Amino acid sequence: MQRTFLKSKLHRVTTTASEVDYEGSCEIDGILLDAAGIGDFEQIQIYNIKNGNRFTTYAIRGKDNSGVISVNGAAAHKADIGDLLIIASYAVYNETEVKNHTPTLCYVDANNTLTRVSTRIG
């Protein structure tokens, strides 16, 4: 059997741009993508803490250390500048892999600068 588990998350990042007239996706600071192990064009789930919107899009790499979190295209209607988001990626694991799986949890400050990486909540 295969099961889907959280692979990684960026916790409480702040939306820095929301651009409707863009080709879609979510531009994310490259340092944050690397820390979370999220690849360019990988599917992500975004959960808007402010308004409860939850949506699927894909990640694109932003400039390293820019702090950018830009929600683009149709998804821009679901996040305003300043909204706090959780960005999550998931993966499918077999029973053997699940036994040793731990997600990568990335935490940031108010400027979307990485402050801590953990495998446990709290």
From TrEMBL:
- NCBIfam families according to UniProt: panD (TIGR00223)
Q: What does the note accompanying the cofactor annotation read?
A: Binds 1 pyruvoyl group covalently per subunit.
Q: Which cofactor does it need?
A: pyruvate
Q: Which reaction does it catalyse?
A: L-aspartate + H(+) = beta-alanine + CO2
Could you tell me the gene encoding this protein?
Answer: panD
Q: Where is the active site?
A: S25, Y58
Similarity field: Belongs to the PanD family.
List the protein's name.
Answer: Aspartate 1-decarboxylase
